[in-house]
User: What shape does this take?
Amino acid sequence: MYDAPFTLHELLHATGGRLVGDNAPSAVESVFTDTRETTRNGLFLAFSGETFDAHDYLAQAVANGATLLCIEASKADKLPPGAPAILVPSTVTAFQHIARFHRMRLPNLKVILLSGSCGKTSTKESLRAIFEHALDSISVLATEGNTNNQIGLPQNLLRLNARHRIAVLEAGTNHHGELEPLSYCAMPDIAIIVSIANCHLEFLGSLEGVATEKSKLFTHLAPGGFAIIPAECPGQDILAKAASQFRVGTFGLDGTDADVTAKYLGGNLHGAKFLLRRESTGETVSVQWGVPGRHQAGNAAAAALAALSMGVPFETIAEGLGRTTLPGLRMRVTEHNGSTWINDAYNANPDSMAASLNWLSEFVDQQKLVLVLGDMGELGERSAEGHRSVCALAKHLFPAARCVVVGPNMTAAAKETGLDCEAFASSKDAADAKLEFAPGSTVFLKASRSTHLELIEPDAAGAH
Assistant: This one.
């Protein structure tokens, strides 16, 4: 439920819908999308999914406090008798337009919208940390969890209120045509493409297809807005062309020709150190933070560039980055029975797998390393090639490590590349096998979320 009040006139204007029914309220006090929620004088929007249709529960929404409904016109026959409703072609689109209208009511708000094949969340959390340090936590709103899709992004916009000065929002996609409406919804002042990599190729087709879809993030960038793109990446020319009508900034690792670069100085299990350089002034700042990996330093450069464009001092940026933490199953470190577990199984593609394995090679004792590598989803025709590249790299970097592979794709790739491993068809099978790990081991888990590698990890009560 979102405590965002709207007048009836505003809702009709925002959605372009048609009012039907009796006794429509002149205004609503909240917006909700779950019939299990209770509210008072609220607008209920009915969504339809593959396995559910909220239009079947409109009476329950009214019983729980909906004084106004927003439903799809094609399902008007499901409207309770006399219930006031706004009829629209698509309730998802209507929800997005309501959220956009709400965003427009906040003239002092600056929106940073970001997308990318890898690194969205770490870049978002870096920006959150920078601005909470530069301002305060009350002034900053950032995407929570994985709410970065067609419904999730407007949900985050409807959490905004007049106290917020900065919104840092993720926009995700795995099909063509999904980012343009999210750009329209958010109306960003700054738009960041974090990376272009072998991700969602099943639907986006190729790296050029990924870049083309990601470039739609700039479609509704505010006039005079700032577009931030990698200095070097697949499809960089596509991104640069799409951003050319705006101010454009670039970022990258040391050695790239970029406005802000990060020189990685090495890391370990608990973090890393790097130098940020601002090319226009030659300024450098040192950053020590708890986010491991060379690739993450590049993401920090993107966040730093965005903050610099908004006038945040370089030293303040460095201090804020030092406070960055990652949520959920992203490099989560736990201790179980004398072994260290690193769970990075929230998402994976060949590029992020390679980045993680290279990071491990910086410090881990491979004699004590257990690699648990699972299937990566949505790679399309390049799935077999992508899984083989991961197994080949693991074999090259860690010839003495113990390897466990999970899922049919990783199992096939391990066999083809000659990776010595224990193989399981699923995470449940691996968990049922009750694998034993010697005290002192470092167990690293990486796969797409759909593989559910977390089933293998013991109870995570010892997380820190």
Summary: The longest strand covers residues 260-268. The chain has 15 helices and 22 strands. Confidence is low (pLDDT under 50) at residues 460-464.
